[in-house]
Structure formats: C-alpha cells, structure tokens
C-alpha cells in the first residue's frame, strides 16, 4: 500500500480514545466488547502513526479516575492492556517501536507494573515511533508529584525556590524528555481534556472527531493529520511557527 505524505507531520500526537462503551451499547453488546474492539484500533493507529513518520504517539489507556468504574470493567481493561503487551510486544519491537509508560506507578500491583517496565526495558533502544501509554495517569496527579519532588529539593537545600522554571517543572513530569503534543485528538464527539496532559497541552492543536474509538481508522487519522497541516500555529506570536523553532 502506498503511504500518504503530509505537508507538516506532527512530531507528537496524543489521543483520548473515547466512546468504547457507546460503540458497544449501540450494538447491544457488553461494554467490554467495545474495549476489545478498541485494542484493534490501537494496533491500526500505532502502525499508521509509524508509517506517517510521527515520532511520539501517546494513548490515554487508563486514567487515575477509571478505578471508579465497576470492578469487572476495571479488570477487563487491565486484562486487555496486559494481553496487548504480552501479544503485541514482539510485533512492536519488529516495527522499531519504543514503549514508554506515563502515570503513577507507586500504587500499581506488581503483575502489571513488571509487565510495563519490562516492555520499556526491552524496547528502549528502538528509534522509530515512541508509543507512550498513559496508564493510571491523571495530569493533576502528575503535576502534584512533580511539585513534591521539587519541594523536596528546596527543603533539602539542593534548589532555590526562585530558580523553579517551566523547564525544571518539565523535567520532573512523567513526560520528561518527550516533546509536548503538537496535536491532541479526541474521539466520540466529546470536547474536553479530562485531566490529560494539562501542562503539556499549552500550545497543542485539538481535533475532535465524532467517531467512537473502535471505529477510528487510518483514514480518519489521515484526515486529522491533513487538518493539522492546514492550521497556522503562532505560539503567542504573530507569524506561523513550528514547535521546534519556538522551543516548546
Ligand atoms: C474510553 O471509552 C476508553 C477507555 C476508558 C479505555 C481505552 C482502552 C482501550 C482502547 C484498551 C486498552 C488500551 C491499550 C493501549 C491496549 P469509554 O469506556 O469511556 O466509552 P464511553 O464514554 O462510550 O462509555
């Protein structure tokens, strides 16, 4: 298949994969079937991102608030993520994909934590796409953890409070070393950020698509990339700029 090329390819795309439950409900299926079909959409999107030359793809897989869902759904979601890592890691490795996980690790059980850490470790030298899995992730929680870490340094005399800068905060976030998302896509017609990458989204472009996540396809992704390429990004200035030029 001939691959599409785009005028401006975002370096980092982040996706809020929403609508699995409604996709299932529309078909009279249990919610878990929506999540299951959602994993197929994850596979297709990872391939499409790599093919388009995107360097970072962040997927909001499980939020720190998702623990409030019924126990069976939480267990289905964790099971699907574990199965994805177990079954797809070899293929991701073959595609030269580096896996990185963001989110609070301290409260995770060792079975899932070990699996995620192992996936990061095994793929750490890959150089094509970095697949960032946001798991047990909440942006306010991430920022609070970064603040605690800076406050400890101030308390211990390793850092002066007046030296705290956006760059220092960046370096304490789970996303340290990852450029800010150029584009954030949310599926299912909902138009909000839901505690996702609040700090990092300062200059992101947003695209909301009506399709439920299980129906997300390479074609819908390409259309979002085309819309992104047509946007002027000014980063507070008056002329169109790239993220690299302004150093965000
Ligand atoms: C939102 O749909 C989706 C989620 C909460 C989880 C997304 C998870 C996956 C696609 C599967 C595992 C992930 C990976 C990376 C393998 P929703 O349940 O909130 O849908 P609704 O708003 O229609 O109820």
Automatic annotation (TrEMBL):
Pfam families attached to this UniProt entry: Prenyltransf
EC number(s) per entry: 2.5.1.-
Residues at the active site: 18, 66 (proton acceptor)
Residues reported in the UniProt entry to bind substrate: 19-23, 31, 35, 63-65, 67, 69, 186, 192-194
Top EC class for this record: transferase
Keyword Metal-binding set for record: yes
Record-listed Mg(2+) binding positions: 18, 205
Keyword Cytoplasm: no
Function: Catalyzes the condensation of isopentenyl diphosphate (IPP) with allylic pyrophosphates generating different type of terpenoids.
Self-association state and partner proteins as the record states: Homodimer.
Name of the protein in its database record: Isoprenyl transferase
Organism: Rhizobium favelukesii
UniProt lineage: Bacteria, Pseudomonadati, Pseudomonadota, Alphaproteobacteria, Hyphomicrobiales
């Amino acid at each position: 298949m001939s691959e599409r090329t785009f005028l401006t390819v975002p370096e980092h795309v982040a996706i809020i994969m929403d609508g699995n439950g409604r996709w299932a409900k529309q078909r009279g299926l249990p919610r878990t079937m929506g999540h299951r079909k959602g994993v197929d959409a994850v596979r297709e999107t990872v391939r499409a991102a790599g093919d388009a030359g995107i360097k970072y793809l962040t997927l909001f897989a499980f939020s720190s608030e998702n623990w409030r869902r019924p126990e069976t759904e939480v267990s289905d979601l964790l099971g699907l993520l574990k199965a994805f890592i177990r079954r797809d890691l070899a293929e991701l490795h073959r595609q030269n994909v580096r896996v990185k996980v963001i989110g609070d690790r301290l409260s995770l059980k060792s079975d899932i934590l070990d699996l995620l850490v192992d996936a990061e470790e095994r793929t750490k030298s890959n150089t094509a796409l970095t697949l960032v899995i946001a798991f047990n992730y909440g942006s306010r929680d991430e920022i609070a953890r970064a603040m605690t870490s800076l406050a400890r340094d101030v308390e211990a005399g390793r850092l002066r409070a007046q030296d705290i800068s956006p760059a220092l905060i960046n370096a304490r976030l789970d996303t340290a070393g990852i450029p800010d998302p150029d584009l954030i896509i949310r599926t299912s017609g909902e138009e909000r950020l839901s505690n996702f990458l609040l700090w990092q989204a300062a200059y992101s472009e947003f695209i909301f698509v009506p399709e439920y996540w299980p129906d997300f396809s390479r074609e819908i992704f390409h259309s979002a990339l085309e819309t992104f390429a047509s946007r002027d990004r000014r980063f507070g200035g008056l002329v169109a700029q790239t993220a690299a030029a302004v150093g965000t």
